[in-house]
Write a structure and sequence with these properties.
Blueprint lengths: L1 H5 L3 H51 L2 H29 L1
């Protein structure tokens, strides 16, 4: 508020107001960014929670599903190692 009292000309007042507006706008932009990241984190958490629930239900549902689940898990592990092998070969 001391800047307001010292301002002599209308141009100085406008400059002070512009600086204050920019400061407030930057503060608001950082708050909006923080809120968006919190929202993204919340939606990702709910997605992962739903996936874990479906996976748990499938694992508990019976022997045939367990065989399928084990087959898919082994297949994904094999694919992971094959991809990592090819990626390591292309880097060297």
């Amino acid at each position: 508020m001391a800047d307001w009292a010292r301002a002599q000309s209308p141009g100085a007042v406008e400059e002070i107001l512009d600086r204050e507006n920019k400061r407030i706008a930057d503060s608001l932009a950082s708050k909006v960014t923080r809120l968006k990241s919190d929202s993204d984190f919340t939606s990702m958490t709910s997605l992962l929670t739903g996936s874990v629930k479906r996976f748990s239900t499938m694992a508990r549902s019976g022997r045939d599903n367990r065989k399928l689940l084990c087959g898919v898990a082994v297949g994904l592990i094999v694919v992971f190692f094959i991809l990592s092998y090819f990626l390591s070969r292309t880097r060297t």
